[in-house]
Write a structure and sequence with these properties.
Layout (H helix, E strand, L loop, with lengths): L2 H40 L3 H11 L3 H14 L5 H41 L1 H5 L1 H23 L4 H18 L1 H16 L7 E4 L2 E8 L3 E5 L5 E5 H6 L2 E3 L6 E9 L5 H15 L6 E11 L4 E9 L4 H21 L19 H12 L1
Antiparallel strand pairs: 1-2, 1-5, 2-3, 3-4, 6-8, 7-8
Helix pairs in contact: 1-2, 1-3, 2-4, 3-4, 4-6, 10-11
Amino acid sequence: MNGFDIMSYDAALALTTGLVVLAALLLLKAFIARQLQQRAKIARPSFLEYAEQITTGTRLPFFIGIALLAGVSQTELSAIHAKWLNYAWIIILVSQIALWGNRIIAVAVQRSFIYQRQSDPASATHLMIAGLIGRIILWSTAALVVLDNLGFNITTIMASLGIGGIAVALAVQNILGDIFSSVSIALDKPFVIGDFIVVDSYMGTVEYVGMKTTRLRSLGGEQIVFSNAELLKSRIRNYKRMQERRVLFEFRIAYETPIAEIERLPQTVKDIVSASYLETRFDRAHFKGYGDSSLLFEVVYYVLDPDYNKYMDIQQEINLGLLAALRDRNISVAYPTRTLYVAALPANEELADAAEKLVA
């Protein structure tokens, strides 16, 4: 058998082996996918979702790469070519394992996020950050494994990365600032997903806390996006953590109200606000001062429930009760008025004398 026949034989063997391996891998993937679908119809344990993600995450390029390497392995190679073939095996296998790990992390984070958002919003807030950190560790480990097997000095590479990392950090300091701010949000928890917060003139419910941005759903329905670094520089008011709500309101009565009724009003207001069914804590009610056209009263009380709708219901009950009490005592609720005083006009002779003096 001459050299040409040997080369033809090796090429045919490599091609046949590659096709067989490719067909076997595709059939294996189809078989596993069908088995998982059948299992899902009967029962769906949580681990099956990870198996499905691994199966669907195994793409055709990986199969083709394995088939090519398997085919080339059947030929006689020189030492240098065998070495490069070994490197190719390492790169493809480690890369695919990293892709599987990345898919598993994504599924785990998504499942945990959906569950924790309902039961423990504080934990859900930093799940995205934990997922990103997990991906960084995964891909860093994969890269180091590949480089180590390719014969590189890992210690030297790590030192070089440390020096280069300083330059990269300076170039992307704004992005890194948002990332560190997201870590601060996750650890310090000034707010969590589901909290209603007010930032400057913006307000809404926290929907998502990411590595770079935090997103609120406003009362109008639109989504408001904040940079994490800028958000932490602002004054944040977290209404979800309000234990009780302090309420201050005023009302005005007419100046003509008798002194006796004015003296009785603070106690009347206290009785109305302190009604047991309102779930409130009365603080004070005072005749505050004199307005332009009315006497001013100021009332302060606490709603023992932070819910805004509950507060408005209570305030409505207090307003109705106070209005009924004022009308029962014939006390007028003041409204803006103005009194005009007109001085008496001078007599006609005085007007004539004044006119003559002006003409003169």
